[in-house]
Each structure stands twice: as C-alpha cells, then as structure tokens.
Amino acid sequence: MKKAIIIGGTSGIGRALAEKLLENQWVVGITGRRTELLHEIKKASNNHITIQQHDITDIDTSDTKMESLFKQLETVDLVVVSAGISEINQELKWETENKVIQTNVNGIAKVYEYVFSKFKEQGHGHLVGISSIASIRGNRYCPSYSASKAFQSNYLEALRCISKNEKLNIKITDIQPGFVDTPMAQGDGLFWVSSVKKASHQIYLAITKEKRKAYITKRWRLIVWGMKIAPNWLLERL
C-alpha cells in the first residue's frame, strides 16, 4: 500500500487531494497549522489519516516536524506540498509582501529541500509542488504571490535536473492551477473557476501519470500559451 504526505492538507486542494488518495487506498498523512482542525479531520476519517502540526514558516522546527511524520509512516512514496498563501497587495504594503515571501518562498523551499534529501536517502519518491498559473508572468495585483510561485516552479525544475543528472529515482511534478474555488481565489472578474473536486481529480491523474508539469484545469494551457507570448504593453494594461 502506497503512502503519501500532504503538506497543507487541512483545507482547499490539499484536503480534497488527501480524501482522493484515501479513496484510492493510499495511506495518508497531513500537516497543517491548526491542531484542533487536524484532530477534527482525523476523527472524520475514522483515524485513517495521520496528522502532524506544522507551520512551514517556522524554519527552525520544519525539519523536525517533517521527520516526525515520516517516522510515523515509515516509508513515504509521495509528498504533495499544497501549503501557501495569497494576498492582493497592489499597494505593496511590506508586512503583507513579507508574509507571502516567508510562507511561499522560505517555508516552501525548506520543505522541498528536506523532502528531496529524504527521498534521496530512502532511494525513491515523488515530490509534487502546487505552484500556480500566476508563476508565468508578474501580476500587479499580487506581486509577491506571482513572484513566489515563479520561484517554486523554477525550484521544482532545478530539483528535477538534479534528479536526472544524478540518476536518482525521484520524480518531480509541478502542478499549476488556474482559479480554483477556494479562499485563495481572490479578486473580481474571475473566470474558468474550477471546483475543488474537479481540480483535485485532475491533480490526482497527473500524479499517477508522473507528469513533469500539469495545468489545472487542462484548458488553462491555452491561457498559459497566451501569457507567454503576450507583449509587455498588453500585460501592463491588464
């Protein structure tokens, strides 16, 4: 029976994906900041989910919290990093920018580093990062968020290059969702908003196929194509 850990599995995509893995006979562990919520989820799953309190912004304790969950599950085949925050901040308030950076850059990078090293030690593993379509270009409404997601996507690509170069049995998948119906989807005029159920299903399929990169939902690849070729003057007017 395969075993998976969801970092940030108490809500949104992370929680839905944990439930999807359980349905498909995976052994699942999840992390989250709120201890009470973790225990509620464990109880609701009839104790089929292993839990670990973990605030990824607490860099000094991050490895210890991860190690505790790895030891409980013994061998881990899959880690999905679904933690992160999004803030609209066109005014560039530093407190907000710094909060996003500490979570989406420092916190996420520490988890990536630990998991990759752990997989290298045990000889196999599949690391999945939930980045975003926002990683493709800068976004004036949420500068630190789009920049942090670009960081995550590039970091995952770098880890894939290391794995290939060193001939490691470590798979790396970059999941790039568009708008999904969660509290992170902020702003007016959102389009192509996917349900959490549909998004988690497509993410699960991408995981089983061990894809390098997957856009969620699939039609967002059209937007990605357009964003990549859009001239700067058009981007600046959006």
How does this structure look, described?
This protein is an alpha/beta fold and 238 residues long. Helix content is 50%, strand content 16%. It is built from eight helices and seven strands. It has helices at 12-23, 35-44, 59-73, 94-122, 143-165, 196-208, 220-229, 232-237; strands at residues 3-7, 27-32, 49-53, 78-81, 125-130, 170-177, 213-216. A seven-stranded parallel sheet has the order 3-2-1-4-5-6-7, with helices on both faces. Strand 1, helix 1 (12-23) and strand 2 (27-32) form a beta-alpha-beta unit. Helix 1 crosses helix 6 (196-208) and helix 4 (94-122) packs parallel to helix 5. The longest helix has 29 residues, at 94-122. It starts with a strand and ends with a helix.
